[in-house]
Each structure stands twice: as C-alpha cells, then as structure tokens.
Amino acid sequence: MTLMLSPLVLALSLFTAVQQPVGATVSGQVRSTSSGGPLRYARVEVIVNSRPIIAAQTDSNGVYVLYDVPPGRQIIRARHLDHAPLEIEIVLRGLTYPALDFELDLRPVSIPYVTGIATRRGLPDTLAASNSELSPAAARAMESTPGVAELGLAEAARDVPGRDPVDPADVLWVRGGTADLKLVLLNGAPVYAPFHIGGLIHALDADVLRSATLYLGGAPAKYDGGLSYIMDMETRGGRMTRPHARIAADMLAAEASVEGPIGSHVAYLASGRNVHGFGTGPFFRSSFPYGYGDALGRVDIAIGQTSGISIMGFWNRERIRIDSGAVINDAEWGNTAGSIRYVGTHRNTNILLTAGGGHFQTELPLGGLQPLLTIGISDRERIAADFDRPFGPVRMYFGASHDRLGFEYQARSQIGAVDSVLVRSRATGNVTGTYAEGSFTALKRVRV
C-alpha cells in the first residue's frame, strides 16, 4: 500500500509547488506634485543591479501593478517623460504589500540647441512701415481692439499746419499705453505697457519676479482704476544670507543681477537686461534696428518680526527704427516707475501702505515737408492704504486710494532748435475712492 501511494504523494507535492506564487504583488498610483493628478503612461520598475527586471505601465488613472516581485529588499523606481524619477526601497516578506504610491516632481523636457546658418542677402537697414496701406477704417479697428491703444501722437500732429488731415499711419500703437480700463501694478507702482514687443528675451525677468496675478473680471475692490484688465505683479526681495550675482549673455541680449544683505536688517536686489544685437553684424549693414533695456532695483528694510519697508525702482526703454523720411528715425517708448511700501501687522490686522508713481513716454518721428517728433506722456501717482482682518469666519478687506493722472501731447519740429514745440496739450484728473468687502469659505474650494 505504501509503494502505491508514494508516486501519488510525490505528484501532488510537485503540483502544489508549481501553483504556489513565486513572488509578491505590488501596486499603487503615480501622481504629479505640480497638479496632484494621476500620471498616465508612467513606467514603474523593479531595479536589480541598476537594471529593471520587472516593469509595468500606469493606466489612465495612474494605477500600476507589479507581479511576481521577489521577496526581500527591493528598489522600486517610477519615472515619466516630463517628471523627475523617484526610487523607493521596500522590504517584501509576504505575497502582498500595502499600496505604494509615488509623487513625481515636474521636470520639463530639455530641448537641445538648434544652430541655424544663414547668409546675407541684402537685408534692409530699417524695418520699413508703409504709410499707404493703413486706412482710416483699419486705424479705428485697431483702436477698438482690446489691449491696443494709441497715446496721443496723432492728436499732437493734428493741429500742426500742413498736416491736416492726419495720416492714420502717423500713429504709434502701444499695448496698454493710455488711460483706458487697464491697470498694471509693479510692487504697487502703476506701469504702462510693461511688455516689450521684440520677443527676443522674456517679457519679464522671471528670476526677480515673485508672483503675477491677472484679473480679467471680478477683481477685488481695492483695484480701483482698472476694470477690463488688471495685473498685479510683485518682485521678490534680496537674499539675506550672502551676496549673490548672476550674469548671462548671448549674441542678441545680456542680463545680470546682484543681491545680498546689508547688515542684519537690510537686503538689496538689482537687475538689468539689454538687447544689444552685437551678433547681427553679418545681417545688418548698420546698427541693429531694434533695442530694449530695463533695470530694476529693490531695497527691503526689516522692522521688527512682522513688518518692514520696501523701496522699488523700475526703468525700461524700447526702440524700433522706421522708415519715416525724417531726421530722427527711431520710435521709442518706455517707463520710469517707483514705489515705497510698508507691510506690517497690528492687533490682528494686516496693513499695507503704498505710495507709487509711473511715467510713460512715447516718441514717434513723422516725415514730410515739415518733419515732426510727436511725443505722448502719461503720468500716474497712486497712494493706497489696504487693510484686512478676520471677523469670525469672515475676512474683511477695506481701505482707500487716491490716483492723480496726467496726459500730455506734444509735436516738435525736427528742423531748427531742439525745444521748438509747435503743439502742446495737457490734461489732468484725480480719482479717490474707498472700499470694503468680505469673503468666507462656504464649501471646500468655494469662496464667497
């Protein structure tokens, strides 16, 4: 009897050994830290001697499952095309393991440099603009376009003898250049047309910019003076740890910054950028027909633990050469702005006091029998006091502001004395207001 059962017992033992799983099952989800959402098509691998031995791919919900993972210490790695890889070491003692989730940091894909080789084929010295193709209807359409406005240059030339009617092309169109329903603040200082048109460098220096909030409707009440377009930009302060400098340059532009502490309570930050065009010599017989430069400086003074004073100054200038047939052939525009702010807390009330001002000026040369230089100027000074504090579940915001606005149009002759002003028109206005509003969180992610 024993001889007959031995083969059967042996067969059953072999069958059981074949059916028993050889490793554990590990599963979980892969998410992105930037959005919190699941990452589809992420690859999760078991690494042995720096090589993957088992791999799986996440589904649309970011879920993965690894089968037959050997017991003991194992390294599990998750990676995605535009995210940084992450490795985790675990110890497997059974056939299952608690959910192993990954959160990967966003890491944009680096694109290699592209080198372009070109030969000179008689490119023009200037960027010419035709005065015959812009009809009055087209000019009115441009004026009504959101975000595009003209700063009085046609107004300045309209009353000059010999220039009636005004050619619609004799207009310098600058985005955000007039007192319309737009408001751009840089550390509380009003800035007109802060974004250059060249596109050769970033619109703003991302290294010194801390935040930028854009409102296209439904803006808080404290932003008096802007309805259709409001942008509130804040720069960061200088480093309090140690001095730091940065410089970068290429064939078209250069930028630099320096920052650091002054004692134990003061920090400074200064930065500047310039489009020099030195590398364009083989393509332009004369100077580069476009130029841009800006500079920003900031000083922060700490007062106690929760308050401080911030002083900021900003300057930028942009030019483009046009074929106007005049003595001066460069159209230019730019800003000069500054602000001083106090930030503090008193008896559970946050306080922000701001005094700032901005000056924006454009210059457009006009040819003809009597060459002119038309000038448009916008000035704005702003004083504001903003407070907020909690009242139970409601946070109240209240304050007041005063703005003084001034606009001036000039037309100067390019023949004769430099200060020969033929036409000058100026207007000023004042706006004062107070506000109060409250908000509370009604539901999760719902603020009223």
Explain how this protein is built.
The protein is mainly beta and 448 residues long. Helix content is 7%, strand content 52%. The protein is built from 3 helices and 25 strands. The chain has a 10-stranded antiparallel sheet with strand order 14-15-16-17-18-19-20-21-22-23. The protein has a 4-stranded antiparallel sheet with strand order 3-2-5-6, with no helix packed on it. Strand 14 and strand 15 form a beta hairpin. It is extended. The termini are far apart.
Secondary-structure blueprint of this entry?
Elements: H1 2-19, E1 24-32, E2 43-48, E3 51-57, E4 63-69, E5 72-80, E6 83-92, E7 102-104, H2 136-144, E8 148-150, H3 153-158, E9 173-175, E10 182-186, E11 189-190, E12 209-215, E13 229-235, E14 244-249, E15 253-262, E16 266-275, E17 290-303, E18 307-321, E19 330-346, E20 349-366, E21 372-391, E22 394-413, E23 421-439, E24 441-443, E25 446-447
Parallel strand pairs: 1-7, 10-13
Antiparallel strand pairs: 1-4, 2-3, 2-5, 5-6, 8-9, 10-11, 12-13, 14-15, 15-16, 16-17, 17-18, 18-19, 19-20, 20-21, 21-22, 22-23, 24-25
